[in-house]
Structures are given as C-alpha cells and as structure tokens.
C-alpha cells in the first residue's frame, strides 16, 4: 500500500488526521485524488484502515474481478458495518438478492398497477392541496413517507404499507444504519460487538416489527404448507417470495423479519433521496415541466399506465438519470474487499484485505465524459438516444461512466424496480402538480455525511394542484 499515492496525511499517527479530514470532506478528497491520479489508484485513510480508490479503465477491471479475488459481501459489511447494523445472518446469507432478481424484476409489469394505486393514495394523504393555493411541504421527510408506502405496496401489500408504525420502523432503518455505521467506524474493531449491543437500536426495531408482521407471516406459512403453491388469493409480493425462499430453512425463517428490514433499508435510502434530488431540480427549473408533461400525456394516452408506457418515456428517463448522475447516493461505489493480492493492468498491486472502491461522482462529473458536466441538462440522455437508440443511455443501464448503481455482475439487482418506481412517482407529480421553491430558481445545496450525499433535509417545496 505504501506504493499507492495518498490524499491527505499518510505518515504514522498523522494518518488519523487524514481520517478525520475524510470524515468531513470525503467528496472533496475523492475529487482531488481523481484529478491527480485519473485512471490510476490512490488511497485515503480511515481510522482503522486504508481505502483504495480507482477510476477510469480500472472501474471495468473491478467489475470483472472474480469472487475468489474480491468480495462484494465483505465490501458491503465494511462500508455499512452491516454485521452489526443489519445483522450477521442477513449479510452471510443474502438470499434476498436472488428474490429481487428472479421474482420482483420479472414481475414488474404485474406490480406496477399496485404501485400506481399507492402513489395516488400516498400523495392525497401527504400533500393535501386546496384549490389554487400553494401547499408548502418539507420535501425529504414527505418524499420518504411516500416512497416507503409505494415500495412497501410491492413488498408487503395493503394494509401494512399504510400502517404508521410499520412505516416508521421501515423508514427508521435508514437513520439507524448510517448512525450505527458512523459510530462503529470510530471505535476499534474489538469494541464493536459491545457498542452494537448497547447503543444500536437493531434488536428493538426487530422486535417491534416482529410484533406487527409475525401473525401474517405465520398465516401465510400455514396456507403455504397446507395448500401448496396454488392457493386462492396467494399474495404476489416480496414478503411472500422471501418466505417461500426461506421455507424449510430454519436459519432463514429465524431472520425473516431482519431480512424484511434489510430490503426496506436498501430500497428506501436510495429511492427517497433519488426522488427528492429530482424534485429539487424540477422545482428549481420548472421550464422542464411542460416538455415532460407532453411526453407523459401522449404516452399514457397511447399505452395507459403500463410498463411499456414507462419504457417509452425517454425524456422522463433522461431527467431521472441526469439527476442521479449529478447527485448520486455516495461519492464511491463498487465496494469490494480483496481476498487475495489483486494486480491491475497498469501494474498496481492492491494487497489482500484491502477495502477497494471506485470514484463515483468524480467520474460522473468529468467534462471529458459528459460535456458541461456540472450543468444539469435534463434531456442529455434522451438526446443521445435520439441520435443512437442504445440501451447504454437508459436510466437502469450501468457503465464505467455511470456507476451509481454499481457495475458488473454485482450491480444493484433492484435497480429495475427502483427506476420504474421513481419514474412513476415523478410522472405523477408532473401530471398532477405545479411545483416551485419560494426562492424561485434556487436549488438547495446537498448535504454530506462522510461519503454519503443527501438532498437538503430542511428544504421546502411548494405544491399546487394542476388546473
């Protein structure tokens, strides 16, 4: 590791200063490393280890590294301290990934009508507009509540997707995990089990969620065992699919509630931020509303509210992808832990046991990859698709230049559901509301917590029901 250049102090003991600087200025330090060592590796200090960051052609190489050389699961564990914040069993046996890939993604067309129904109910409840009056909302908390309902319509169905206690527990996982991660990263590894036991709310959250969900889980188990796969009115939701995947495996059944919370965390922390980032762009630049409206209305008139319609909304797809390109969820991605010494094509050696990531926002802000990259160009990708109708420019498509969803075989398996969900919510907003900021044209700055980027949680957006 000494041969890999460092951003921040690197001498013994002084590296702790670098770790403190990274905690407060992660994005700036990653960008500095990207500009100095573009296409190469550099490292930054954590309090307990070094993190190696790569960019350029090395991103594609990370995506191709076999699982016996680098571990995606251990990378997630290191990034989120997930053994403690999400539970050891769920990280050691992440069977939900196959459920998302094989069941949810393949049933998107079936799930979409339920999603659209919940979007309408959630907006009516959360944004009660009156006539021509503007209604002011705290955008991030309200969008988080709406996303939680919409997502859980597909996860657990009615009535639980509207249950206030259930939603509070599901949404609360976001704060619990990030606070826990930050706290655990500040203490030595041998103290983490103690800190996790006494200071993290995971056990209490699991118990409260279990009180709500175990009766319905037990009833579904009973019907599944008595009637098999074809019982009448069998739910087609994520809870049913993970229950089927866990059936007959005691370890999975014991952690079913934990797994439901994990799936909620993964879905909610990215989607609630993603829709709020996009909403801020729309409210700051309302000139985009009319072209989006026109496309959405014409497409729905021809196709109805269907998966086919969403696929044909190129401008909406571009708007959402451009928002994610600029804002993202994190300034790094493709997180891995090296299991063996890894050699990149430029000769760089990354020793076994190293935390390895790619520079996400720095890559997606490179003018050589995206002309005028700092500018929010809502229809950047739809214009490229008109010139060359390539899957490369679609929102859900990853590439070495667009890695917010990761890239390679471990790219986010739920991104196809997330894209449809976010596009559906934004389409509903565009069709049914006018939106703006009180200070028109001024988008609030993002807020950073270490490597994580969030839309300003204090910002308010004005909504008015469209005439």
TrEMBL record:
<keyword id="KW-0479">Metal-binding</keyword>
<keyword id="KW-0408">Iron</keyword>
<dbReference type="InterPro" id="IPR001128">
    <property type="entry name" value="Cyt_P450"/>
</dbReference>
<keyword id="KW-0503">Monooxygenase</keyword>
<dbReference type="GO" id="GO:0005506">
    <property type="term" value="F:iron ion binding"/>
</dbReference>
<protein>
    <recommendedName>
        <fullName>Cytochrome P450</fullName>
    </recommendedName>
</protein>
<dbReference type="GO" id="GO:0004497">
    <property type="term" value="F:monooxygenase activity"/>
</dbReference>
<dbReference type="InterPro" id="IPR036396">
    <property type="entry name" value="Cyt_P450_sf"/>
</dbReference>
<dbReference type="Pfam" id="PF00067">
    <property type="entry name" value="p450"/>
</dbReference>
<comment type="similarity">
    <text>Belongs to the cytochrome P450 family.</text>
</comment>
<keyword id="KW-0349">Heme</keyword>
<feature type="binding site" description="axial binding residue">
    <location>
        <position position="412"/>
    </location>
    <ligand>
        <name>heme</name>
    </ligand>
</feature>
<dbReference type="InterPro" id="IPR002403">
    <property type="entry name" value="Cyt_P450_E_grp-IV"/>
</dbReference>
<dbReference type="InterPro" id="IPR017972">
    <property type="entry name" value="Cyt_P450_CS"/>
</dbReference>
<dbReference type="GO" id="GO:0016705">
    <property type="term" value="F:oxidoreductase activity, acting on paired donors, with incorporation or reduction of molecular oxygen"/>
</dbReference>
<keyword id="KW-0560">Oxidoreductase</keyword>
<dbReference type="GO" id="GO:0020037">
    <property type="term" value="F:heme binding"/>
</dbReference>
